[in-house]
Each structure stands twice: as C-alpha cells, then as structure tokens.
Design a protein that fits this description.
single chain, Tachylectin-2, Chain A, five-stranded antiparallel beta sheet, Glycosyl_Hydrlase_43, glycosidase, hydrolase, Glyco_hydro_43, hydrolase activity, hydrolyzing O-glycosyl compounds
C-alpha cells in the first residue's frame, strides 16, 4: 500500500474532532470543536475508497453517471474522472446496467478485490417491482467497465421493503460476508429497518446460507432508519459502523438528523450490541457539519481512515444546494473503543 504524506492529516485535522457521546440528551445538535473540511467539494454521495497502484479510487452514487468516480494520490486533492476531457463527460464505472435495473437510480457502490478481479455491489431500482434491490457486477479493472447480464438482483427482500446498501467484508480467515439493510422505511411497507449479514461464496458473486439480523432501529437517535453497514475487525474485535436518522436536511431542522453509530459484535455474524455512547459522529451547527453518514473504513499508510459524506453548507450553516461532499477522518482505537481523532 502506498504511503501517505506527513502533511495530509495536519491539513485535514487541525484540532480535536467530535468524539463519542457528542449528542445531548435533549436532542440539541452537539457542538463541534473543529470543522470537518470536505476533501472533495462535488456532489459525491455514499463514497467508497479503494487503494490501487499508488492512488486512491473513490466510487459514489450516480450523478450523471451510473457509478461516478474520483481519484487522488494523497487523499487531499481529488479529481473527478472523465472519459472525455473536452466534453467533461464523467467516467462511468458501470455504463451498461443489468436487465433488471431501471435507468437513473444507482446508489451506494462498493468494490471488493478478488483473485479473479473486482466485484461491484450496488443498489438500484428494480424495473419490475419498483423496489430498491442489490446487484453485483464484475470487472478485471477497478475502473471498469463493470458488467452484469443478471436477470435478477443478488438480494431483494421484497417482503421487507427491498434491500439497499451492500457492503462486503473479508474476515481474517478469508471468509467473505455481505452486509445490507432491508428498506423497511419504504412508505408502502412501514416496517422496522434492520442490518443483515450473510456469507458470500469465495468469488463474492453468490450469497450462502441465510441472512442474520444484527442491528434494528430501536434507539431514539436512530429514528426510523438504520442503514449503510460497515464491518471492521481490529485485534480480534468486530465493530459494525452504520448510519441512522433521516439522510436528508429538512427545512424544519437546524442541521440534518443523520449520524454515524456503531455496534460491537462477537463475530462477523454477530450477535451485536449498540454502543451506549452512540451516535459516534453527529451533526453540529458550529462549525457546520450537517448529516455526516454513509461511512466507509479503509487503510492508508498503515492508518485506519473513515470516509463519509455530509451536506454542503454555507458558513452560516444553511443548505448550499450543491449536494453531499466527501470527508475523510482518521479512525483510532483506544482500549478497544473506536474514536475519530487527530493524528
């Protein structure tokens, strides 16, 4: 894995960041001691980052491309990938969608490196039933094109409102798992939302066995949604990060209710227990951070980092109407507890 510049974190983290337990009991937005400057000021929701041959590739929810991408060599300066410099047409990692997918609704891509190449997991709208479901596509190159001729999604929990936010995980023993959320908050279903785990085949293309429920939206701060699962193993301990609340920024809110939490798990298939100090990272109005969420954890230069998005905002903490920007923070571990902290 390539090194990371010694100045990167000085620029990203000038002082202490928001730590566990930052939300007040009254629900008042917590106060941040420093800002989280975005590293990429473009509409780039649900970011996922993969290191490849000395640079970092980021994938995001569709915005003119089914799977848009950006690249960086230092994690500070990012460039949107384009196929045609003259026209500025965005590079699309999956330009042709599988037969089951309705055009224009492709979200939350994550990529798994395997011996055979790369596997892309994505959420898309099912053309036949209108639900959001999870698909899978493959490519020899992490830039794509990722392709799939599947007639049906990899997983779609139709009785539970559909399925979104796939996240692959390779355990220390090599076994692959997929984490996902049932879309129970779909207005036609009004069911609880849960985070599930299920084994994957060695090539990452098939689910094995039955899904296991790990986390449910049963805490006040989570409101009606838990989603965007990310499993991490460190020192034999398992941590399931997730996002919760309304991902949007409603007119009635000073800042978005969206936030990041985590649960501690006994293994890749749980059982899991929510951290009592949740949310792990929440919105703050001074300085403005609105709706941090849909996190992913990756490594660079031997460090654990967390990428996430938040809503673009004015200096007065009002919506900037430019979408969701990408942020990167350093993730550290103290006595078995994850923390977002300076270098």
């Amino acid at each position: 894995m390539s090194g990371i510049s010694s100045t990167l974190f000085r620029g990203l983290f000038a002082a202490a960041l928001v730590l566990n337990g930052c939300a007040s009991k009254s629900g008042t937005p917590p106060r941040a001691d420093v800002s989280y400057p975005p590293v990429f000021r473009a509409n780039f929701p649900d970011p996922f980052i993969l290191e490849h041959e000395g640079r970092y590739l980021a994938y995001a929810t569709n915005d003119g491309a089914n799977v848009q991408m950006a690249a960086s060599t230092d994690l500070t300066t990012w460039q949107l990938l384009t196929d045609d410099a003259a026209s500025g047409r965005k590079h699309d990692a999956m330009p042709v969608l599988p037969p089951w997918v309705k055009e224009g609704f492709t979200w939350a891509p994550e990529v798994l490196r395997t011996e055979a190449g790369y596997v892309l997991y994505f959420t898309a709208r099912h053309a036949a039933n209108g639900l959001q479901c999870i698909g899978v596509a493959t490519s020899r190159d992490p830039l794509g094109p990722f392709t799939s001729d599947a007639a049906a999604p990899l997983v779609c929990q139709e009785a539970l409102g559909g399925t979104i936010d796939a996240s692959p995980f390779r355990a220390p023993d090599g076994q692959l798992y997929l984490y996902f959320k049932n879309d129970g908050n779909h207005s036609a279903f009004n069911k609880p939302t849960e985070l599930f785990a299920q084994r994957l085949s060695p090539d990452g293309l098939q689910l094995v066995g039955e899904p296991v429920s790990l986390v449910r939206n049963d805490k006040p701060w989570e409101r009606h949604v838990v989603e965007a699962p990310t499993m991490v193993e460190r020192g034999g301990a398992y941590f399931l990060f997730f996002s919760a609340g309304d991902y949007g920024w409603q007119d009635s809110e000073r800042v978005s209710s969206y936030a990041i939490g985590y649960a501690t798990c006994e293994g890749p298939l749980g059982p899991c227990v929510d951290a009592p100090t949740n949310p792990f990272l929440a919105s703050a109005s001074q300085p403005c951070l609105s709706g941090p969420g849909h996190q992913t954890v990756f490594q660079a230069g031997g460090r654990d980092l967390m990428a996430f998005h938040s809503w673009s905002a004015t200096q007065a903490c009002g919506p900037l109407k430019q979408g969701r920007f990408m942020h990167i923070a350093q993730l550290s571990w103290e006595n078995g507890v994850p923390r977002i902290a300076p270098r």
